[in-house]
Write a structure and sequence with these properties.
Structural class: alpha+beta
Strand content: 25-35%
Number of strands: 7
Oligomer: single chain
Order of helices and strands: HEEEEEEEH
Number of helices: 2
Strand order of the largest sheet: 1-2-3-5-6
Radius of gyration: 15 Å
Amino acid sequence: MMTLTNRFKADDVITQTASGLAGEHIAAASVLGRGWRVSMSQQDAVDLIAWHPDTGQMLRIQVKSCQAARQGQGHRDRRVHFQTGLGGRKRLPSIKDYDILACVSADQRAVWYIPVVSINTKKYTRPCSFFEDPHLESDSWANCLKVLQDVRR
């Protein structure tokens, strides 16, 4: 049976590099769908640069992508994991690193946005069902904009 959870699965488990690149494109498409412009960035800590065509506001976005299919078929409680720590000692990111973390569930082609100032753990784990919320992308994006606006005041 085709569900939101499994309709986008790749034919085979793709490499982590390919999954990461797919995640960047999924996040870029999501940002474009919110009326922003976006460009792929070839930097270590920033994957996308987004800007609003009317206001000129710019955002640096770091993308983390996860593929639950890596857990293998038949895994009872399928979850996705996103590492947020940076560097050898895995420090928490700050506004000096980027503005928004885009957590992409590659299997569902869905994005959860987190403002970097709200990141308080080195790893987020969510059940795949978390990404089935049809308002996840729009609500988390709006929250990021609000939080970042408040921080920049």
